[in-house]
Structure formats: C-alpha cells, structure tokens
# Entry
Amino acid sequence: MPGILVVSNDGVGLAHTLSALHEAGYQASGASSFEQAKQFLAYTSPDLVIADECLGAFNGLHVIMRARATQPEVPAIVTTRVKSRGLEADARSLNVEWMLKPQTPAEWLGPVFRTLRAGPAAGPVSAQDVASHQVH
Amino acid sequence: MYLKPPAGASFAHRFDAPIWASLAMREMEADIACAVRCELNVLITGEKGVGKTSVAERIHRQSRRASVPLVIARAPGGVEAPDRFERALLEAFPDGAVLLENPELLSPEMQSRLERFVERVEIRGSSRQAHAQIGQVRVITATSSDLFGLVRGRRFGESLFYRLNSIHLVIPPLRDRAEDIPALLQQFLSASAAAAPVPFLSAGARQELEAYRWPGNLLELRAVAETLASLDRPRVETDDLPPGIRR
# Structure
C-alpha cells in the first residue's frame, strides 16, 4: 500500500483529504506545518509527497526539497490556490507536478493515482489532467 | 548597545566550512544544501548580524550559477532610488542571480513590479530585448523583518511572498545557540590574530561568552574577537572580556 504524506495547514481540508485517500486504499499521513513535515520525513520515507505551496511562513516546495534530500526521486505534487507561472516553472525545474488545489477531497484521487503510476520523479501532469482537476 | 566591527571591515567568517555544535544550525545546513542543489528562490531571515548575506553568498558561490555575479538589489528606501533597484534586477536578467535586501521597504507598486519579475511574465525597464524574453533570474532575499507577519498584516503581497520563499532559511540568533560560540570565536580569533598563535579561552571566559545575549550576533562576536586578539595574550581570562560582556 503506497504511503503518502500530505502537508497542508488547512486543518479541515487536510482531514478530508486524508479520509478520501484512506478510503481509496492509500496509507496517508498528514502534517499541518513545515516543522511537522520535517519531523515526519526524518523518520519515514513516503512514496509520494503532496504539499500546499502556502504553509504559513514556509513553502511546500521546501518540504519537497527536504524529502528529496534523502529520496531524490520521490514523486511529488505541489498545490496552489492561484495559478502562478513562477510556481509552474519552479515545479517543472524540480520535476514536480503542480495543480490548482482541488475543491473536494475526491478530486485528489486522479492526480495521485497518475503520479504514483508514473513512478519516480514523474514528468509533468498533462494539461488535460490539470484541467480536469482544477478548481472551477 | 553592542560593540560594532570596524567600519569597512569584511566579514571574514563566511560559513564556508562550518562545523556547528547546535542542532538548529545543523538543520539549517540541510536546508542550505537544498538551496544549493536547486534553482529555487530563497528567503533568508534572521536578526541583524546573524550572517544572512554570508549565507546568501555561499549559496550562490556553490550553486550552478556561480560563474555569474550575484547582483545586489537593495529595496528602494532612503538613498536608494527605484530606478536603481530595477536596474539591478535587469542586470541579472535573463538567467543570473539577485540578492534582494530588505524587500519590506518596497512600495506596493514596486512589489507589484517585482512580482511580475519573479513570475517571469514581464520585465519592465529600458531594455527592449528584455521585454521580449522570459527570464529565469534566481532571487535570494535577505531581511531581518518578519516578512510573513507583514503578509498577515496586508503590508506585503502574499503571492509575492510565496514566490520569494520557495526555500526559507531562518538563521537563529546567537543567544539561542550558545554552543556554537566557542568554535565561532576561535575562527574569528584565527582570522584576527593572523600571524600570532590563537589565544586559548579559559573555562570562565567561555561561560561568560555563552551566557551573554549577543544582540549584535556574529558581527558583535567578531568585534569582541578582534578586541581579544589585539591584547596579544596566549590565554583569554574572564577579566580580559569587554565590560559589557562580563556579568
């Protein structure tokens, strides 16, 4: 069962997302801050890291870089509330998927499945994938 | 008040081969390694004198962009004019690196311009060629302000903040990592007492140094090291320390 680390400081959204991933058969763990994510990564090696870009004073990309310090090819997804060309370019440079934050927990499942299926440090999510999972 | 280093003196200690005793700084080394490996923008925060600029220079020096100069862009405030700030950004265009200092001083309009710059959608300036290109300038930001606090207070743009802080290094003040002081002092003494033997630190002097609050952080520690080196003694005792440091 793939292990997924979800990092978001939106407590309610995080709980719903974890619940949806559990129901879909994933072993998902949550971290509500950059510090918690760092502690989690010090002791575990997830198969996928999903991090929100906005983590208080920190950035989800930083969490992903920390994860890749010990697992250089761990697949990762960074989510954002607002489309950003800069974030898109940064994500591409790291071979990280990026997507607009889903509105419902169920909307996570498609990108998660595709990213895990693509394997280590997968290429960018296709435009069609992003379009089908972005906030409308 | 704290002892200030001599005017114009270079910051000899540049963190190039640090051996930290404190867990906080060893943690930060892991983040510096992340910043060196990638091309993401970096935000460095910490009190005045903790060595933000030195860390920024080190990241740049060890990065893949080391062959190009790190252009200093001070946020316009005081004597710095906005056009000078923009010129500095353009100097790094299209694929150089900028050290952005004190972005909290930027006006909303300048924040907006900077955001367009880091979002790589528009470059404003005198160069027509620049308008036609999408740059990939790396921005390393250094500030002693609580930039996220300013975001929460709506005095600094949230989206700009998250474009600048892809990696956020928080350098702790010296008083929170007293265990680093002896090794740092020895390094500063080595640099100050170039030809002479480095003086030995007595246990009493060490305790006093570790108990002191160091409001000026590394800058102040270096100034103390220079004072102690000038005494030209083989051993530093408690009485040799500047009066403000002795309890």
Q: What stands out?
A: The first helix of chain A runs from residue 11 to 23. The helical segments of chain A are 11-23, 34-43, 60-70, 85-93, 109-118, 127-133. The first strand of chain A starts at residue 3 and ends at 7.
